[in-house]
UniProtKB/TrEMBL annotation:
Part of the signal recognition particle protein translocation system, which is composed of SRP and FtsY. SRP is a ribonucleoprotein composed of Ffh and a 4.5S RNA molecule. It is an enzyme of class 3 (hydrolase). This is Signal recognition particle protein. One of its GO terms (biological process) is SRP-dependent cotranslational protein targeting to membrane. It comes from Quisquiliibacterium transsilvanicum. Residues 266-279 form the SRP54-type proteins GTP-binding domain. HAMAP family: SRP54. GO terms for cellular component: signal recognition particle.
Length: 442
């Protein structure tokens, strides 16, 4: 699949010490094939490859990145850009209830997605949610929505196949208003293919409800067809976003890449399973990384390069190489760098999945707080104290603790942690710091 294929290309690129016209060309060709095989539309592929080439040629390669890594970075960024760049969020900029109208073909996953969204909105945004089904063609469809709504812990507005969709929508809206629901999710009927009656019906619902969000639900396994259907809907119905379902299946992934380029509408959510928990808000960058199959390692490297003041990193390396001790001034600087890189949790976000699982077990919020506290304590020390922490005695500890607004035992703990770190640093010095750093970058 796309991910495996691109991951293979990426591996080759990374190893390239030098990018020549010839090997760049070769790799762009591989990328092109990978995208086409994933069922990405040809014009989108052409455009994409052209952009990557243009950026690659004009690129000042960061000293510490190999040209190969730099190219991977470009591919990664352009993939994210292709999918809309930044995550597109649901809008609630309206008098409540915010109405979300679902559109899409039969079997796309509309009803399931309404259930998932109800749960997501309740849990993540603390919204009071009402759902209603305007699918009057299949009695089972209304029952299905009732079931998933109950599972989601949201409110359900009953309807029957004897009613008209417009009347159901009107009554549900009235109910939502008088019962102070924040969000009204409107499920609709789909057909096997786009047909006039379905389009007329949903266009009427749209005109009547004036939803703040009109989400087109589409099955990722349909590949280019999915994207073409989205485009056709978008011509009749002003969509605000797309939900790409069944990304957990063996879809080739191409739909995710071309939806934005072809419809102009962002993907807002992806469905990744039949269960109600199988919904994720869509982050183009994360998706790009997933497609490249390598976690966010590339942008991690890039951000590290950005955040770490290269000069000061070198100064530290030199200092350690010369056999000097790593002191609290250095430690403080390192903590600051970590913060500039977006803190611990954002670092964890960027790790490949297998590491994320392990890191997820640690309490990141707590760790971040701890880091901040450590910084506060070190800030309350004088430079001289930071340079010679072992000279910090009881009275100084009290002063530092007061300055940082912590207890003396917190200062003690920090000093003990620092002690450990210092001896670790010593070992690294012996093992050859330069060698280790090279290893990290490669
Ligand atoms: P609707 O006709 O558009 O309302 O589609 P449904 O919500 O009834 O879903 C059709 C089928 O797709 C059902 O069997 C769902 O369980 C399944 N489905 C929906 N979303 C997903 C998803 O993200 N992943 C997987 N694997 N199946 C899904
Ligand atoms: Mg349905």
């Amino acid at each position: 699949n796309l991910s495996q294929r691109l991951a293979r290309v990426v591996k080759t690129i990374k190893g390239e010490a030098r990018l020549t016209e010839a090997n760049t060309q070769e790799m762009l060709r591989e990328i092109r094939i990978a995208l086409l095989e994933a069922d990405v539309a040809l014009p989108v592929v052409r455009d994409f490859v052209a952009k990557v080439r243009e950026k690659a040629l004009g690129q000042d390669v960061l000293q510490s990145l190999t040209p190969g890594q730099a190219l991977v970075g470009i591919v990664n960024r352009e993939l994210a850009e292709l999918m809309g760049g930044k995550a597109a969020e649901l809008s609630f900029a309206t008098q409540p209830p915010a109405i979300i109208l679902m559109a899409g073909l039969q079997g796309a996953g509309k009803t399931t997605t309404v259930g998932k969204l109800a749960k997501w909105l309740r849990e993540n945004l603390k919204k009071k949610v009402l759902t209603v089904s305007c699918d009057v063609y299949r009695p089972a469809a209304i029952e299905q929505l009732r079931t998933v709504t109950e599972q989601a812990g949201a409110d359900f507005f009953p309807s029957t196949p004897q009613q008209k969709p417009a009347d159901i929508a009107r009554d549900a809206l009235q109910w939502a208003k008088t019962h102070y629901h924040d969000v009204l999710l409107v499920d609709t009927a789909g057909r096997l293919a786009i047909d006039e009656q379905m389009m007329a019906e949903i266009a009427q619902l749209h005109a009547q409800l004036k939803p703040i969000e009109t989400l087109f639900v589409v099955d990722a396994m349909q590949g280019q067809d999915a994207v073409n259907t989205a485009r056709a809907f978008n011509e009749t119905l002003p969509l605000t976003g797309v939900v790409l379902t069944k990304l957990d299946g063996d879809s080739r992934g191409g739909a995710a890449l071309s939806v934005k380029a072809i419809t102009g509408k962002p993907i807002k959510f992806v469905g990744v399973g039949e269960k109600l928990t199988g919904l994720e808000s869509f982050h183009p960058e994360r998706m790009a990384n997933r497609i490249l199959g390598m976690g966010d390692i590339v942008s991690l490297v890039e951000e590290a390069q950005k955040a770490v003041d290269e000069k000061s990193a070198k100064a530290l390396a030199d200092k350690l190489k010369s056999g000097s001790r790593f002191d609290l001034n250095d430690f403080l600087q390192q903590l600051g760098q970590m913060k500039r890189m977006g803190g611990l949790s954002s670092l964890v976000d960027k790790l490949p999945a297998q590491f994320q699982a392990a890191a997820g077990q640690a309490d990141m919020g707590k760790a971040e707080k701890e880091l901040k506290r450590m910084q506060g304590i070190i800030h309350s020390m004088t430079r001289a104290e930071r340079a010679k922490p072992d000279q910090i005695k009881a009275s100084r500890k009290r002063r530092i603790a007061t300055g940082a607004g912590v207890q003396v035992q917190d200062v003690n703990r920090l000093l003990a942690q620092f002690d450990q770190m210092q001896s670790m640093m010593k070992k690294m010095q012996k093992g050859g710091l330069a060698k280790m750093m090279r290893g990290m970058k490669g």
